[in-house]
Amino acid sequence: MPPRSYVSPARSAAAAETRERVIEAASRTLREGESIARFSLDTVAKAAGVTRLTVYNQFGSRRGLLEAVFDEIARHGGLHQLADAMTMDDPRAALDRMVEIFCAFWSRDSAVGRLHDAMATDPEFAEAVRERNERRRRGVTALIDRIAARQASPQARKDAVDLIFALTSYPTFASLSAAGRSRDEVCRVVQAACRAALQPLTLSNPSS
Amino acid sequence: MPPRSYVSPARSAAAAETRERVIEAASRTLREGESIARFSLDTVAKAAGVTRLTVYNQFGSRRGLLEAVFDEIARHGGLHQLADAMTMDDPRAALDRMVEIFCAFWSRDSAVGRLHDAMATDPEFAEAVRERNERRRRGVTALIDRIAARQASPQARKDAVDLIFALTSYPTFASLSAAGRSRDEVCRVVQAACRAALQPLTLSNPSS
DNA sequence: AATTAGATATACATAATGTATATTCAATCT
DNA sequence: AGATTGAATATACATTATGTATATCTAATT
Known about the structure:
homodimer; 208 residues; mainly alpha; Arc Repressor Mutant, subunit A; 0% strand; elongated; DNA-binding
């Protein structure tokens, strides 16, 4: 008696739809709520018009839901434009563009701020977000390798990568935003700082 | 029948001692615990050898305890050296020193990282920490005012202040540390970035 | 000896995550 | 058409936290 199983177009379509609805409700709740502390699966479920148990069915846990929201935001956040940026002829222009893309990403949906808050209370979720950020680090590394003069030391390259990685992170964006800057103003400041971080890579006199 | 009240040296001394013991236990718990999520007043109370209710008596709430821990760490974190730094003749050297002092502060006690995590879940605690950070911003502002050339625009000054404020923040320190750097290596990178942030203030040609 | 401050004991209210079990209902297969 | 299956629901329960309330205990002061 092997249980006969089947795939149901209508069923899985409906399931995908509720899934979308829950993700939408979750990101809205994150956006409108004043703190991640108030973000409960109860709230989300009610906002989506489903039961809390349905959320567990779809995402397994609070963490699963948060990851799904993060991925959804990333999908619609314009990060796909990075591919084009990376192929630009001038790697410095590419870096400028990269900063622009990430500033747009961090500012597009305020839910990303709340998701970064969630990293504080859930180490595994934090790890998942960090892994997703590693793509940014790899992008920066690739650009630095193109920008750096041949005689630039590995240490100087790593310094530049780590610094630019920090400068393009969400916390830096949030700090500059909190100082009362528009997205474009933040972008301008970060771009300038990143350009400055390149200086040690091009000067033929590496301090010694 | 006004209740006669009195101050009791032995009483308040004993109270102060338990208070210290609880703060010590709390910071130890923060230091050793792997996440702020696991930080409960139950744990702290047991570690301090008191009841959870005693913690409420002394600090009023979880937030009150966290603030007390933060202030205790700040008291022994070497921030008093900032006064000397600010009076240095060379404001650039003072800035270097300031970075040094804050790198030492952020790295001295790993509990500060957990306290920053706590900001994510408690908006009022976050506000309290932000207020304490404003002293750093004022220090940076004072130095920038001394460093900036007379013709430097207010905008350029604000850019430098906000950027250096972000560069000397805990999140930046944590990001650079996570990249596998020692405290001194982080300090060196941040100092270089801060010096670079001063460039636009001294060049007599402000881009136009 | 009465009183008082600080700590304790016990109990309770509330909210959140997560698990377990049985059930409803519409879509799919034979 | 009737049996079966997947998704969602209903209900219940265990666990862990914060925070409040009330009464009691004990040692320091008056």
